[in-house]
């Protein structure tokens, strides 16, 4: 088994001292209350995983338009702030640090799932052609409405407000979700962004919205509390970012511009283009987090060992093993993930995965 030695080295992330190089990757769990407040068990779920040090939450909508899935939490209303404050307190009590992921889904939505039941918004009026789970079963994502230039400014304002709300709730920072086929990623992808104004058409124009969101959030809460996640070439949500060279051109420019903002971290959902990942490392001035879907247990330290990453966030291993840090440290066996309970309500498959001590 490959050594995990490098994972156990401490790391300073902005103003936060981390004891090791693991973190909790953001994972949607669809257990929020109907008003968008985190569910009753959210504080327990996240505090159970606080030994991961950096706890990045599930995608959390900055506005009603930003919601796509059933029962996901928000961070824009006063009651959301009060709900997240309980989560932040619980995580802090266990020695962890909380970053709330700000996720605006754009066209990956359905009016059945949002509080205002409106048509989803996007860079262009192009359907993602995806199946969306609603209370009445799966339905097709509708054709979204194209945001006007003025509305783009409003959405940037929503991100600003959501970031301020996260800090008001006691979070240590936010992660801007510019990955996985959602609104910010839609702006980057030529097949979802066919705008003819300053937000579409060229590499620079397609990156503009992401950069403006990042600038606004960093200005609002501080760059040392602002992280961002990207997923170059990830075809989720019907996105097509073109061939390898097109993807490299888009993301080298984007990351080069974001690098100037001194954000606290760049979180890369890495699909395998090591040349691109290395180029990020060369220009990025702070921490780089790298996830790779389905990374095996003995591959967790690989990107850190290769000098490409500082932190290796864990998704499903941490979902199924609240004490994943202890288990990896002691070379203990892991619980299996139960895929059937990923997105269902309640404690089962959420807060009832046993620790080594329970077992
Ligand atoms: C149940 C589930 C929900 C997820 N939700 C999100 C999300 O809200 N935001 C996000 O950026 N990634 C999300 N992801 C992706 C994870 O953050 C992570 O990148 C992915 O699971 C790969 O890591 P792993 O192989 O360690 O699980 C989700 C993954 C899973 C399994």
Automatic annotation (TrEMBL):
GO terms for cellular component: cytosol. It comes from the Bacteria. GO terms for molecular function: FMN binding; oxidoreductase activity, acting on the CH-CH group of donors, NAD or NADP as acceptor. Pfam families: Oxidored_FMN. Keywords: Oxidoreductase. Belongs to the NADH:flavin oxidoreductase/NADH oxidase family. PANTHER family: NADH OXIDOREDUCTASE-RELATED, NADPH DEHYDROGENASE 2-RELATED. This is Alkene reductase. It comes from Leucobacter massiliensis.
């Amino acid at each position: 088994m490959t050594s995990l030695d490098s994972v156990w080295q401490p790391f300073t992330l902005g103003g936060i001292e981390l004891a090791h190089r693991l973190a909790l990757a953001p994972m949607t769990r669809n257990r929020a209350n109907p008003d968008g407040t985190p569910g009753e068990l959210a504080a327990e779920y996240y505090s159970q995983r606080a030994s991961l040090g950096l706890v990045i939450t599930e995608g959390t909508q900055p506005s009603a338009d930003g919601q796509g899935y059933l029962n996901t939490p928000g961070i824009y209303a006063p009651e959301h702030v009060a709900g997240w404050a309980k989560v932040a307190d619980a995580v802090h009590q266990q020695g962890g640090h909380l970053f709330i992921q700000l996720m605006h889904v754009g066209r990956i939505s359905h009016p059945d799932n949002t509080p205002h039941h409106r048509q989803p918004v996007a860079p262009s009026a192009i359907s993602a052609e995806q199946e969306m789970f609603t209370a009445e079963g799966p339905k097709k994502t509708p054709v979204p409405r194209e945001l006007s230039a003025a509305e783009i400014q409003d959405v940037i304002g929503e991100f600003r407000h959501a970031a301020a709300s996260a800090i008001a709730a006691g979070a240590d920072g936010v992660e801007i979700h510019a990955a996985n086929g959602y609104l910010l990623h839609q702006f980057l992808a030529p097949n979802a962004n066919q705008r003819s104004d300053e937000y579409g058409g060229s590499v620079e124009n397609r990156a503009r919205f992401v950069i403006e969101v990042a600038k606004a959030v960093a200005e609002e809460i501080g760059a040392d509390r602002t992280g961002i996640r990207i997923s170059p070439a990830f075809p989720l949500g019907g996105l097509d970012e073109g061939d390898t060279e097109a993807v490299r051109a888009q993301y080298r420019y984007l990351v080069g511009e974001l690098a100037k903002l001194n954000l606290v971290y760049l979180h890369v959902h890495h699909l395998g283009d090591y040349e691109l990942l290395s180029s990020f490392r060369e220009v990025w001035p702070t921490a780089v987090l790298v996830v790779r879907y389905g990374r095996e247990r003995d591959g967790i330290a690989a990107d850190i060992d290769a000098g490409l990453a500082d932190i290796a966030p864990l998704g499903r291993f941490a979902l199924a093993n609240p004490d994943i840090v202890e288990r990896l440290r002691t070379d203990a066996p892991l619980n299996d993930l139960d895929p059937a309970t990923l997105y269902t309500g309640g404690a089962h498959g959420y807060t009832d995965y046993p620790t080594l001590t329970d077992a």
